[in-house]
Amino acid sequence: MAVFTPVSEQDARNLLSNYSLGEFASLKGIAAGIENSNYFLTTSAAEYVLTIFEVLKVEQLPFYIELMHHLAERGIPVPKPQTRLDGARLTMLHGKPAAIVSKLAGTYIVSPNTAHCALTGATLARAHLASADFTIRQPNLRGLSWWQETAPVVMPFLSQSAQNLLSTSLAEQIAVARSEDWRALPKGPSHCDLFRDNVLFAGTTESPVLGGFIDYYFAGVDAWLFDVAVCLNDWCIDQTSGELIPELATAWLEAYSRVRAFTEQEHRLWPMMLRAAALRFWISRLYDFYLPRPAKTLKPHDPTHFERILTQRTLQAIPNLPKDF
Ligand SMILES: Nc1ncnc2c1ncn2[C@@H]1O[C@H](COP(=O)(O)OP(=O)(O)O)[C@@H](O)[C@H]1O
Ligand SMILES: N[C@@H](CCOP(=O)(O)O)C(=O)O
C-alpha cells in the first residue's frame, strides 16, 4: 500500500484553504506506488492528486515540481502542480513536503501495441524539446556516480557470472561517459523512469488517447537518448526473454524521431545507451532486493529481469535508430 501518511478530511479541507481549487468533495488513498503517499482529492471544481513526499528531500523537490509545471504550461500532458494563494507550489502536510497536482485520465497498459508506443515516443520527444529552456538544473541522481557507488555494495550478493557482467558493464559505461560522442549528446531534463506504469492511456486499444506521463520523481538532467533507452527496454520487449520486439521498437523510435531527429552521436552510442538503461535498473533492483529500506512494504521488483535484458543487449544485434524522417 502507498499511504504512509494518513490524511483526514479535515486535513484536506485545511490544506485546500490555501488554494483556489474549489470546495472539498472527497479524499481517497491510492494503493499503487512505492515512494510517496498519494490520494485522489476531488473538489467542487476538479479532480486532483495529493502527493506527500516520504523519501525525497525538500531541496530536490523544486526541480520535479517546477519541471512538471513548465511542461504542463507548454501543453505536455503531465500532472500540473497547483499554485497556492501565496504563490508556492510546494506545501507542507504533517511535517512533510506535499503537492496537489492535476489528475490525468486513463490507466496504464500492460501490453502496449504500436499505437501506444508511437504516442509515447512522440510525446517524450515533445517533452524533451519543451524542457530545453527549463533553467533549474539537477542531475539524474540515479546516474553513473550512483551506479559506481552502489555496484560494490550489491556485488557480494552476486554469482561470479553476474559479478563479471556488472563489472564489465560498469567499465563500459565509465568509458562511454569519457568519450567525445557522449559529451556531444543532446542533454536536458529527462523523465528517466518512463516505464509502462508511468504512462496513462484512455480511448480504445486500437485508438488510444494519451492521458499523460506521471511520476517525474526520478527525473534529472541526462542524455535524452538515455530516456529513450529506458523506454525501449520496458515498452518494446518480450517481457519473458527481454528481447526487443522490432515492430514495437520501430513504431516507438520512428514516432520520436519525427519530432526530434537523432544525431550522429546518438546513432553511434545507441547500443551502449540501451545497456546503460538496463544497468541502471538492474543495480537499483539489486539494491532494493538485497538491502530493502525498513519501511518498504511492497515486494521488490525482480532484479534478474534487468540482468537478462543487459545480457540480451550485450549478446544480440541491436536495431539501428531510424534515419531522416
Ligand atoms: N496525476 C495523476 N493522475 C492520475 N493518476 C495518478 C496521478 N499520479 C499518480 N496517480 C496514480 O497513483 C499511482 C501511484 O503513483 P506513483 O507516482 O507511481 O507513485 P510512487 O511514486 O509512489 O511509485 C499511479 O499508478 C496512478 O494510478
Ligand atoms: N521503474 C522502476 C521502479 C521505480 O519505482 P516507481 O514505482 O516509483 O516507478 C523499476 O521497474 O525498477
Question: Can you describe what's shown?
Answer:
With 325 residues, the chain is α+β, with helices and mostly antiparallel strands. It has helices at 9-16, 61-73, 114-130, 144-154, 160-177, 180-183, 224-235, 246-259, 264-290, 303-315; strands spanning 24-29, 37-43, 47-52, 91-93, 96-102, 187-190, 199-203, 208-213, 220-223. The strands form three sheets. The chain has a five-stranded antiparallel sheet, covered by helices on one side. Strands 6-9 form a two-stranded antiparallel ribbon. Strands 7-8 form a two-stranded antiparallel sheet. β4 (91-93) and β5 (96-102) form a beta hairpin. The longest helix has 27 residues, at 264-290. The chain is globular. Bound molecules: adenosine-5'-diphosphate (ADP) and ligand LJ64HWYM. Residues 2, 30, 32-36, 38, 49, 79, 101, 103-104, 197, 214-215, 217 line the site of adenosine-5'-diphosphate. It catalyses: L-homoserine + ATP = O-phospho-L-homoserine + ADP + H(+). InterPro entries: Aminoglycoside_PTrfase (IPR002575), Homoserine_kinase_II (IPR005280), Kinase-like_dom_sf (IPR011009), Pseudomonas-type_ThrB (IPR050249).
